[in-house]
Design goal:
By secondary structure, the chain is mainly alpha-helical. It contains six helices and two strands, in the order αααααββα. It is elongated.
Length: 131
């Protein structure tokens, strides 16, 4: 469960570091917390919230028509028509996504098969060859 303090700290930091954002004041932060989906408050953890913030910073094409707090939900909750649907729950592959926090993890494309990365193939005999 995310706390109001963690919620506010992340949003305050993001609003100060993202381009074209004004820092949020206490009134804006209070409104965002009071209107934030209750189910999201229950399901989010500090680690997941920080991951979402990192993904927002890395997103090459973030949604500009949605408030910042709701933008973050897109990165961790299942999406419906390009928006987070909190009722559908967290993304099924969120643990795998969170293992790559410094790389932007885009939304899955419907019908696209995503294969796990394959380990590099190494041949011990080739390691001694001078290329």
């Amino acid at each position: 469960m995310i706390t109001q303090e963690d919620f506010g700290k992340v949003l305050q930091a993001l609003s100060r570091t993202l381009p074209r954002f004004k820092p949020w004041d206490e009134t804006a932060m209070a409104l965002a917390w009071m209107t934030f989906p209750e189910k999201a408050k229950q399901e989010l953890t500090r680690e997941v919230w920080l991951y979402a913030a990192g993904q927002r910073r890395l997103d090459p094409n973030p949604p500009e028509d949605v408030p910042l707090d709701l933008q973050l939900l897109n990165y961790v909750f299942r999406n419906e028509n390009g928006r987070a649907n909190v009722q559908w729950g967290l993304k099924a592959d969120l643990p795998e996504r969170m293992q790559r926090p410094h790389v932007f993890n885009p939304q899955p494309v419907p019908g696209q098969v995503v294969l796990p990365p394959e380990p590099a193939v190494t041949n011990p005999l080739l390691q001694e060859v001078a290329w």
